[in-house]
Amino acid sequence: MLPCATDLLRWYDRHRRILPWRALPGQKIDPYRVWLSEIMLQQTTVTAVMPYFERFLAAFPDVTALARAPQDRVMALWAGLGYYARARNLHACAQAVAARGGVFPDTVEGLLELPGIGAYTAAAIAAIAFGRPVVPVDGNVERVTSRLFALTDPLPAARKAIAARAVTLNADAQAKARPSDFAQALFDLGAGICTPRSPACVLCPWREACAGHAQGIAATLPRRAPKPVRPVRHGVHFCLVDEAGGLLLVRRPEKGLLGGMMGLPGPHWRDDPWPEAEALSLAPAAPRLQPHWRMVGQVKHVFTHFTLLVDVYAARIAAFPNSMAAAGCVHYPGDAAVALPSLMDKCVKVARKAGIF
Ligand code: SF4
């Protein structure tokens, strides 16, 4: 049995979350805000996104302003949100939309043609910003659906089957009459009531229709196949500073993790640990520069597909040679254009804690 859309919408009208990218009842929906929030929310929580969203909106009030901004500025404002390829795609997408006169496509198909917009994001923007009657299936909606229909096959294999049921949730006329609210109501139900560990079924507008609740298995759904163990990789990064507080940075290659971001110099990350002699043979060098390196600690950083252990070596010299400063690879405190990804920030903090600067 399908749950009743009217019950959910009535609940949403009373309990909807107030979010900076959401239009209040009667307000015009801004597709730019919807798109920006959806890109930021991928793999991240609402709480983590809020300050970034506010900062982006203050710096780039519309899609044309974002399109015109230098990529370094966009990356700097994004730093800390992770998944940096998304920031580059965000910028490319803004440029594509600016080239269309600043107007976003208003269909799922049109949105899918833009950089960085996949099936979920296209459905979310189409439903929320343009009132298209589609159900965007994110983790919240997946969880609610698996419980409503007591779907016990484990993820990730069951993902397609769960999504196929989820897209039927808006089958009734009330849901189709308010697609934007219906999609957001599903998100809010998943985020606030049908929560991962302890769903508050007693408060749920869909309790009567929920098979997971009726069978007493709601909190165990969706089931998940055991995760494969995350492999460990090893890196080395060098933190070289001078008496004036200058820090040697390099731009990482465009392709790969943290692509295009500024970072501490160091060799590629690999499966085997780096013995000290080998690591130091790859330390940054320049004429008349003879830093006395010492290992100041190890940083652990968890990426989606592996855990990275970084040996941090640090040294302080009197002053960087002019050639390095002129090449723009020495950065000083307060340099607004430079923001380090959190892995690099952790490495710098380890060096700082060791008293290097
Ligand atoms: S009744 Fe409980 S398990 Fe079912 S949808 Fe509502 S909160 Fe989730």
Automatic annotation (TrEMBL):
GO biological-process terms attached to the record: base-excision repair; mismatch repair
**Keywords in alphabetical order:** 4Fe-4S, DNA damage, DNA repair, Glycosidase, Hydrolase, Iron, Iron-sulfur, Metal-binding
Q: Does the keyword DNA damage apply?
A: yes
Q: Which InterPro entries does its entry note?
A: A/G_AdeGlyc_MutY, DNA_glycosylase, Endonuclease-III-like_CS2, Endouclease-III_FeS-bd_BS, HhH-GPD_domain, HhH_base_excis_C, HhH_motif, MIG/MutY
Spell out the reaction equation it catalyses. Answer: Hydrolyzes free adenine bases from 7,8-dihydro-8-oxoguanine:adenine mismatched double-stranded DNA, leaving an apurinic site
Cofactor(s) of this protein? [4Fe-4S] cluster
User: Domain HhH-GPD spans what residues?
Assistant: 40-192
A single GO molecular function term of this UniProt record:
oxidized purine DNA binding
Tell me which family the UniProt entry assigns to this protein: Belongs to the Nth/MutY family.
What protein name does the entry list? Adenine DNA glycosylase
Native organism: Komagataeibacter nataicola
